[in-house]
Each structure stands twice: as structure tokens, then as C-alpha cells.
Design a protein that fits this description.
single chain; 229 residues; alpha/beta; Endonuclease, Chain A; three-stranded mixed sheet; 20% strand
Length: 229
Amino acid sequence: MPPPTASAPRGGTNLTDELPKVCTVTVPHARRPRTVPGARVRRRDRHPRDLVGFRDLWVTELALTVLESAVLPGGSALLDRALQRRVTLPVLHAAHERNTGRRGAPRARLLLAAAADNPASAAERILVQLLRSAGISGWKTAYRTSGAVIDVAFPAQRVAVEVDGRAWHHDIARFQRDCTRQNELSNDGWLVLRFTWHDLTDRPDEVVQKIRRALGRRELGTPRGMGHL
């Protein structure tokens, strides 16, 4: 009979310094273990490819650990680091397909799709949805001005919102272009806000609040050329 397994401690993956307050223990459906303080027991049959030995324990293999952590609050940042350092998209997709019935699988599918698709476009779509849901109007997408194309612009208030959707990609050349563009916009009197993929997915209310605040400052006549918020 397959042994009980635990979700690999986050610190054991070398992807974060934080350890979970509660360890999740997975047992086969046929077993009926007793509850233990500090552990959450769930019944699920694991595929052998999703198990690995770790410090005398059977734990979930890295790919499945990353997927199950990614759907937790703030977990998309861990997925980011995993793709940069330890695991590839094909490996994550394979682990996902072996465990499509698990809790959080739909959100994991969306995160994987965003990582494989054009990350910037996916992030811009999320931003537009946030603006519409919040009832914020007066914005235009792909707005051309000052020799640049602003992701989402509020021309009346001269507020530029830029989104960095490349949470899973290092691109030094793109980073340099973004810095140059932001400086040009600031010098031309635009207030520039920058948000990451993690801001949009993990802290959407904070994103909306900052945009409202920036618009309010401009409507009250805050001097132009204040840089970025």
C-alpha cells in the first residue's frame, strides 16, 4: 500500500524562507489516519512520479508542490521563482495533467496558461477587468504619446499605468526600455504607475486604490512632472 506523503516544506524547495504553519499530509483513500496537531490530513492517491524522498519522508515532488503552493495567497510569486530557477513549464504541465481533480486546479491552469502565453497581454487584460469592475472610466489602452505606447492611459489626468506581465521571464533589454520610457513620460508631465503580475493577481484592491489616488491627485491640481507613484 502506498505510504502517506506530505507536501514538501516550502523551505526545502529553496524557493522561499517561510515554512508553512500547517503541514498537509496526503494519505491513500484506503487509510484512516488519526488527526495530529499542526497537520492537515487529506485523502488522495498520488501518482508515483509525484513522490520523492526527502529527509526520510515521502513528499510531493517539486512540480506538484509548486502547483499546489501557487494557488495559495501570494503563491504566484513562488511559481515565478520556481520557473526562474528550478522547474520548466512542460514539467509543471505534466504534473498538472496527472492531478486535474485536486483543489485549486482551475486557478493553477490559469497561471500556467498565463506563463505560456504572452504574459504582458494577460496582465493588461486583468488590469482592464479591474478598472471595469471598479467603475473607473476615462482610460485608453495602447495610448501613444511622448514617443511611447502606454499600456493604460488616463489622458485627461495624464496618468500612465504600466503593467509588467513578464513575471516568468528575465529580459534586461526590455527592462532598460521600460525605464527609458518611464523617464520620458515623467519629464513630459505624466504620473506613472507600475504594477507587476503579482500586484494584479494577489493585491487587486491595492492596485485599484492606488489608481484612484493618483487620479484624485491630478484632478485636485497636483503639479505636473511629479514622477511616479
